[in-house]
Every structure is written in C-alpha cells, then in structure tokens.
Structure prediction request, 238 residues.
Amino acid sequence: MKIAVFGDVHGNRFALDAVVQDIERCEPDAWVNLGDQLFGGADPAGAWQVQQALKAEHGVLEVRGNTDERLGEVLSETTEKREMLTWLHEQLPEGAGAYVAGLPTSVALADGQVLAAHGTPESAWTYLLREQKAWASDEQVLARLGDIKEARVIIVGHSHLEHIRQIGALTVVNAGAVSRQKDGHPSARWVLLEGEAGCWSVSFRRIPYNVEAAARWAEEHAYHGAKEAQQLRTGRGG
Prediction:
C-alpha cells in the first residue's frame, strides 16, 4: 500500500500545486492531509480550492491543525492574530474556517497500522517530536502518544521539520511542511509511506516550486505580505 502524506500547506497554492503533481506521479492508494491548510498568504483561497478538489477526487483524509482551530474562533478585540484571521476570512469562502476547525485531531488507516495527526493524536497544538528547540526524548514521545493501539507508523506535522525516529517496533515520522519552511531550504515537502506485510518504508520528498511567484503574490495581496514573502524565499521563519 502506498500512502501520500502532506500538510502545513499554510495557504500556499503555488507550493501545493507542485506537491500534488509529484504525488499524482507516484499513484498512491491513499492521501492524508495533516492540517494547517489555510493560515498563510500565498493565495489561501486557491489553496482551499485545490484541497477541496483533492478531497473530492481522491478521498483525502484530513486532520485539523492548530491554525485550523484558530480559523474557527469567534473574532473579538482580544483574539490572538485577529488581523491575520480577519484578512483570511475575507479571502476564503464562507464556512471554510468552520470546516477546517471541525476536522478530527487524528485519523487511522491501513487497518490501523498508520496513525496520522498534526501535533499529537489528541492535540493539534502539542509537538510530538520537539521539546522547545531540541528533539524530544523517546520517553517524551511515547508519553505524548498515549494509547495508539495497533499502529506501527505515526506521522505528524506541526514543527515543519522533517524527522524519522524508530522506537522499538514503532516508526515515528514528521513529514515536514508544504510551505513556510524553517530549515533554510524553501522547497515544498511531503512523505510517501509504502507498506507490505506489516513492514513500512518512508520516503521524504522535496519538491521545487515557483517560490518567487508565491512571494510576489504575498507581497501584493497578503496581510504582512513582506514577512510572508521573506520566509518563502529564504526557507527560514519562526
């Protein structure tokens, strides 16, 4: 079985288009979207349309990210990141924010062998594999996972940093991000999982895309577009 896993699109339609083309060439049996679909400034409305079309065509399984939860908040004067959220709601069709905010925190597939989440299976905000600015210990990872039943592979996003960890019989993976990279390389990321007879392999994919077009869109249209454009161009951000 082949499973394509991508996430942290962060409203970057340009990067997502390139990732989708690469995934389609691999002809996976299942697709998984790890969340944080829309919170970003490189054509979020276009990114929404692409992700909705993918779900209709490929039955993409989706989980919610922490910024998806933000999009479901009622805005007030004290709402964190209110200006960005206001701009996003102006860009997106009605109901898009509520939709992503209502997604589950995890999904299981391959008869429960693979468990996918944004942060941890119970929280879109908790980092599974990070402890502040370092990698979490195996003990911390297992404690954050809780009861994963028969899962053999756990795959998450959230930190935007690719990682693979073997803890006994369990393989733990961070897929990296489609957009808003943090490691100094602006290419888009996704992961291909391939399983047979209970054994799974993990392939990290890095895809070039038209970063400059995405950055220019941000500069011309987005809230705090200059900041967004700089992160897209440099692959470095907070």
About this structure: The mean pLDDT is 97.
